[in-house]
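Team,

Forwarding the record for the chain on the shared tracking sheet. I've put the sequence and predicted structure together so nobody has to dig through attachments.
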Amino acid sequence: MTSHWILGPGAIGRLLAHSLAPQSAVTLIGRQALPNEQTLTTLEGEQRVQRLNTLTVAELVSEAQPAPGVVHIATKAMAAEAALVNIASEIPPTTPLVLWQNGFLAQPRITQAWPGPVLCATTTQGAYITGDDSVVHAGRGPTFIGDLNNQHGALAEALAGVLSQADINASAVDDIRQRLWQKLAVNAAINPLVALHEVRNGVLRHEAYATHVEAVVREVAMILQAEGIQPPNGEQGEQAWLALVWQVVENTANNKASMLQDVEAKRPTERNAILGPLMESAKRHQLPCAELVALDLALAKKETAYASLS
C-alpha cells in the first residue's frame, strides 16, 4: 500500500494527496491538467507548497505507469462509476479501491461490479479548493473505513494505519454501511442549505437557518429510524441526530461544503446521491419528506438556472 492513485483532484482528493505524499508514492489523476506544484493551507493558516505527481486520465492511459497499491476514487458520486471505467484497463482487477463519495449511490454499485476489494470511507474532514493549485484544510474530523460485506477487515485496518500516520485520523470499522447512512443524514441537513443560500457551514447556526436545519433533521430522523440506523453516539431519536449535525457544523464552521463548491463552480450537485436515497426510503416506508423534496427541487432549479447560462 505504498503507492496511491487518487482519482479526482477535488478538495478531498487533494487533501489526501498532500497528506500521503510525504510518506508514499502518490499520483493525482484528473480530467484536466493541473500544476505539479500544489499548495495546502493548513487549519492553522500555514501555506505548504508540495510537488505532486499530477496526470490527466489521457496521460495515464497513454503512458505506462507502475501498478498502484491502492486506488482512491475521490470524484463526485455521480461521476465515480464512469471515472473508474476510464482507468480500469490500467489497473489489475485485484487492486483495492477506496470510495470517498458522499451519499449512498456509487458505493453499492461499485462494490458489486469491481472484482477486487472495495473499501468505503466516510469522513468529516473539511476542505475546499481555491484554484487549480491550492486547497484549504477547513475542518478536522474522524474518518471511518470498511467494506459493505465485511470481508476485508485486515485491509481496512492497514489503510486506516496509513492514513493516521498521514495525520488523517482514521479507524477501521465493521459497520460502514451504518456510518455511510449516518454521514448521509448529516450531509442532508447541511449541504443543500449552505448550497442554496451560498454560505459556509457555521452560518447555519444563525436563527434564520437553524429552524430549517431542525425541520430537515426531523424528517431524516424518522427515515433513519425506519431503516434501523442509529446515531453514532449510542443515543436515539431526533435530538441525538440534531446534536450530531450541530457538532459537525461547529467542527467545520469555516468550511465550504462540497455542494456549495459545486454551486459556486456552476457544476451539477450531488443532490441525487445525498437526498435521493432518503426520499426513496421515505416513499418505501410511507413517511413524510416535504422538506427533503423542497430542497431537491430548489437545488434542481438552481442547477437549471446556471446551466442555461453556460
